[in-house]
C-alpha cells in the first residue's frame, strides 16, 4: 500500500502541492517561485473560458495586469500569420507547393546566383523546412544563408516567414497589417491585436518601438502585439475550423515535417515533436496537441491546445527564464502530462516534476539545512540536474536573496565538485554576501577547472582591485541616447557594485561589473560596456559591444 501512495505522489504532485488552493492562489505561488512579475493567462475547457490576471506586466511597474493589457507575443504571431496564409490558399490566391519566387520574380535578400532559393514554397516556410537561416544582422547586405537544400531538413526560421509575408503583400497588393486585420483580427473580433505599434498604445508594459528595427517591421515573424483574451479567440476559432475549409484545417494540424533541428544534437523530445503548417505538434499522454511559444526580449508566451477536446491554455509573461513555469501550468490547467515541447526547446527544467517540490520544501523548512532537503527529495525518487539547481540559484540571486542563493550554489558545488560553473555561481553568491576573499578563491577554482572562463578571470581582476568599489559607480549612471535617435536610450543605474543597463525599447536589463577604469563586463552576453570622458574629465559617452556611441544626457 505504501508503494502505491508513493507512486501517486510522484505521478500527481499537484494533488499534494496545491491542495486547498484556488487557481489564482496557485498562480501567485508559481510566479513567486520563478520570480516573475506577473502573468496573463486564459484557459478554455468544455466551452467555458476563464481569464487569470496576476501581478504586473514587468519588473518596476505598479499597475496590475488586466485582460486588456497588451504584451509582445513574439513568435506566436507566426501561427496567426499561417492561418491567414491558409485562408488565402483556400481562395486560390496562392499554392502551398508553387515556388514563391515565381510569384514575385526576385527577392533582394536572396543570392540570385544560387538556384536553390527558387525551390522554396509556402509549405516549406510554414513547416520550417525552407533551409533559410534565422534572422541575420540586417545591415550587412549579405544574402540570407541557406543551411541546406530546401525541403530536405528542419530548421526554425523567422526569415522564411518574412519572405512569405513579402510574397503575400505583392500578391494581394496589401500591407501586412491590412491583410491581417481583414483575414484574422476583424473576423475573429481580436480588437486588441496588431502587428504595428501605434502612438495611442499604452507602452508601460511593451515599451517604445525599437526604431533600429524599423526596416524590418511590421514583421509576421515577431511583431504581433496582443493579449491572452484575443489570442484565445484565435485558438478557439482555429480548433473549431472557423474560416478554413475542413481539409485545410486538417492539413494545418497534420505532420508536415519532423522537428529534428538541423545542426542540433538529437534528443529524446525529437520523438514526440513534429511540425504542421505554422504550428508545433506534440504527442504525449494526452494525445496529439498543438503548441507554440513566443520569445522577444524579456517577453515570453506559450499556448497548448487539444484539437479533440477543444481545450486550450495561453499565457503571456515577462522575465528571465519565464518559460520554466510552462510544465507546471500545463499540468495544472491541462492535466498531468509530459510537456515535450519544453524539453525540445530547452527552455524548461530538466526535471519539472522535482522543482515545485523543492520550492515547497524550502518554503516549509527554510534554507538552513539545504542538503537535508535535497536528500529527503532524492530518497522519494525525485531527480535533480545541475542545470536546474543552477537556474534556481540565479532566481534567488535576481531577488537579491544572496544567503539563500549561497546555500543553493553550495549544494551545487557539493553535488558537482568538478563543475567550473558550480564554483563560478558559488563565487557570485559569495560576492553578493560581501565575502570578497571567498569569491576570489571560488572564481580561481572555477578558472582552474575551465581555463576558458573569461568571466571568472574578469571577476578576479575586478575584485582584486581595491579602487573598484560600489561608491565610485555613480559617475557612470544616467541617460545615454544616440545622436540621431533621442527617443532610443539606455538608462544606467548603480546597484551594489554593478551597473544595471536598461534598454528603453523593451525594458530589457543587463548587469555589468567593473573590470577596468572605464570598462565593464556582462557575463551572460559577454558584452563589454566602456566609457569615454570629455575634456573636463566627466563621463561623456558609452559604448556597448561596438563603436556606436551613446551620448550622456547632461
UniProtKB/TrEMBL annotation:
Any one Pfam family match given in the protein's UniProt record, by short name: Beta-lactamase
Domain Beta-lactamase-related: 25-317
Source taxon at top rank: Bacteria
InterPro entries assigned to the protein according to its UniProt record, in alphabetical order: Beta-lactam-related, Beta-lactam/transpept-like, Diverse_Enzym_Activities, TPR-like_helical_dom_sf
PANTHER family: BETA-LACTAMASE-RELATED, PTHR43283:SF18
Name of protein: Beta-lactamase family protein
Top-level taxonomy: Bacteria, Pseudomonadati, Bacteroidota, Sphingobacteriia, Sphingobacteriales
Amino acid at each position: 500500500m505504501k508503494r502505491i501512495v508513493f507512486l501517486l505522489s510522484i505521478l500527481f504532485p499537484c494533488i499534494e502541492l496545491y491542495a486547498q488552493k484556488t487557481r489564482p492562489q496557485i498562480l501567485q505561488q508559481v510566479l513567486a517561485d520563478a520570480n516573475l512579475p506577473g502573468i496573463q493567462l486564459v484557459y478554455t475547457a468544455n466551452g467555458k473560458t476563464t481569464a487569470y490576471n496576476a501581478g504586473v506586466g514587468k519588473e518596476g511597474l505598479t499597475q496590475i495586469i488586466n485582460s486588456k493589457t497588451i504584451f509582445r507575443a513574439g513568435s506566436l504571431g507566426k501561427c496567426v500569420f499561417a492561418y491567414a496564409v491558409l485562408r488565402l490558399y483556400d481562395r486560390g490566391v496562392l499554392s502551398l507547393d508553387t515556388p514563391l519566387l515565381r510569384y514575385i520574380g526576385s527577392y533582394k535578400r536572396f543570392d540570385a546566383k544560387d538556384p536553390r532559393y527558387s525551390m522554396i514554397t509556402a509549405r516549406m516556410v510554414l513547416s520550417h523546412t525552407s533551409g533559410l537561416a534565422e534572422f541575420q544582422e540586417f545591415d550587412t547586405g549579405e544574402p540570407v544563408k541557406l543551411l541546406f537544400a530546401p525541403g530536405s531538413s528542419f530548421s526554425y526560421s523567422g526569415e522564411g516567414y518574412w519572405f512569405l509575408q513579402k510574397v503575400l503583400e505583392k500578391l494581394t497588393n496589401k500591407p501586412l497589417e491590412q491583410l491581417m486585420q481583414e483575414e484574422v483580427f476583424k473576423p475573429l473580433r481580436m480588437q486588441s491585436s496588431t502587428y504595428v505599434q501605434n502612438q495611442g498604445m499604452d507602452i508601460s508594459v511593451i515599451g517604445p518601438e525599437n526604431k533600429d528595427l524599423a526596416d524590418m517591421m511590421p514583421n509576421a515573424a515577431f511583431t504581433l502585439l496582443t493579449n491572452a483574451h484575443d489570442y484565445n479567440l484565435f485558438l478557439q476559432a482555429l480548433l473549431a475550423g472557423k474560416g478554413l475549409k475542413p481539409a485545410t484545417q486538417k492539413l494545418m494540424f497534420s505532420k508536415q515535417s519532423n522537428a529534428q533541428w538541423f545542426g542540433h544534437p538529437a534528443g529524446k523530445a525529437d520523438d514526440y515533436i513534429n511540425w504542421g503548417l505554422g504550428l508545433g505538434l506534440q504527442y504525449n499522454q494526452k494525445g496529439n496537441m498543438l503548441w507554440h511559444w513566443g520569445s522577444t526580449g524579456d517577453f515570453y508566451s506559450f499556448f497548448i491546445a487539444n484539437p479533440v477536446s477543444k481545450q486550450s491554455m495561453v499565457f503571456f509573461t515577462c522575465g528571465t527564464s519565464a518559460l520554466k513555469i510552462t510544465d507546471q501550468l500545463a499540468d495544472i490547467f491541462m492535466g498531468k502530462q509530459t510537456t515535450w515541447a519544453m524539453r525540445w526547446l530547452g527552455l524548461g527544467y530538466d526535471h519539472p516534476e522535482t522543482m515545485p517540490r523543492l520550492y515547497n520544501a524550502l518554503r516549509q523548512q527554510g534554507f538552513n539545512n539545504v542538503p537535508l532537503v535535497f536528500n529527503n527529495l532524492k530518497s522519494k525518487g525525485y531527480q535533480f540536474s545541475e542545470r536546474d539547481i543552477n537556474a534556481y540559484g540565479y532566481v534567488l540571486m535576481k531577488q537579491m536573496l544572496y544567503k539563500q542563493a549561497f546555500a543553493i550554489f553550495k549544494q551545487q558545488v557539493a553535488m558537482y565538485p568538478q563543475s567550473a560553473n558550480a564554483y563560478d555561481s558559488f563565487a557570485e553568491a559569495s560576492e553578493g554576501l560581501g565575502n570578497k576573499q571567498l569569491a576570489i578563491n571560488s572564481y580561481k577554482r572555477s578558472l582552474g577547472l575551465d581555463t576558458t572562463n573569461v568571466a571568472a578571470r574578469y571577476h578576479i581582476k575586478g575584485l582584486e582591485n581595491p579602487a573598484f568599489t560600489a561608491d565610485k559607480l555613480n559617475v557612470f549612471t544616467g541617460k545615454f541616447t544616440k545622436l540621431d535617435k533621442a527617443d532610443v536610450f539606455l538608462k544606467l543605474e548603480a546597484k551594489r557594485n554593478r551597473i544595471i543597463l536598461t534598454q528603453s525599447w523593451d525594458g530589457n536589463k543587463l548587469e555589468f561589473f567593473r573590470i577596468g577604469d572605464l570598462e565593464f563586463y556582462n557575463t551572460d552576453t559577454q558584452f563589454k560596456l566602456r566609457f569615454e570622458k570629455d575634456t573636463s574629465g566627466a563621463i561623456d559617452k558609452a559604448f556597448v559591444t561596438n563603436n556606436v556611441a551613446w551620448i550622456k544626457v547632461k
